[in-house]
Amino acid sequence: MLPGPAADAGSSRGRAQSLVCEAPTDSDDPYWAFYEEVAAAQLREWLPTRPGRVLDVSGPRARFARQMVGAGHQVVRVVTDAVPTDLRERGGATPGAGGGGALRPVVGDARSLDWFHADSFDAVLAEARALSFCLATETTLEQIHRMLRPGGQLLLCVDSLLLGLARLAEQHRWAELSDVPRADVVLVPADDGTITRCFWPEELRALLSSAGFEVDWIRPRTVLSAEAVTRALAEDVSCFPTLVRTEVELSAEREGESIGIHLIASARRPR
Question: N or C: which end of the chain has fewer CB within 10 A?
Fold first, then answer.
């Protein structure tokens, strides 16, 4: 791993402290509703305008897959036996309401994608921190590169090193925290026993490049603090759309910076 400045990580830790756990899917927290709309807006901006075949390895939630189907894409969504599949997905492909798009779930392990044919997708979406759960991220990225057609795109979201530092501090793992600047890989346990891999922007760029990708950009998912967003919405809920647009613009302006709890990246397989 390429270490970041310790002073910067320490001064930023408080911004991530209240968000060290991923929001529950049924959360009524106004910040997480805002976060989800920001993610949807970023996906909308990234999606290819020409409908194509997209692989979705974003975990148990189908929200992003449905958004892509609504935009006219043929979406193959990887699910596991342990995760109940949405009722509307059972029984085969689900056509999109907008026409042209369709959603087809397949049962498999998103951490190992060698069971797909090479050059079989126009785009791959790895939202919801999916690649942070793939601890051998290098191997997963190489498999994604193999599955993409030349010119195919990848959009991913991972845990930031800032979030990892906040989690380690919350768990009082001072020895592990002090080792972070010297670590090649930072793996952080969560309270439920799961382990996720956290990334600094430079490390993520190096991993993508090593797997053969051309990196378009790496950005923080969010820049505004949870406290600022919650306060603004409490004062005037009608500012919600404006806040979402502002957050998307700020994220693009802070390209390459490690701010907030998650990083997003866009890359493509060279033609």
Answer: C
Q: What is the pTM of this model?
A: 0.86
CB–CB of 160/131 below 8 Å? no
Q: What is the pLDDT of residue 15?
A: 41
Q: What is the pLDDT of residues 186-219, one digit of tens each?
A: 999 988 889 999 999 999 999 999 999 999 999 9
Reported as type and span, the H/E element at residue 126 is strand 121-126
From 102, 216, 209, 204, select the one nearest 153 (Cα to Cα).
216
* Bridge partners (DSSP) listed for residue 189: 195
Rounded to a whole number, what is the distance in angstroms from the first to the last CA of the chain? 29
Rounded to an integer, what distance in angstroms lies between the CA atom of residue 171 and that of residue 271?
A: 45
Phi/psi for 103 (5° steps) reads -120, 125
Give the Å distances, CA to CA, from 89 to 96, 122, 180: 11, 22, 42
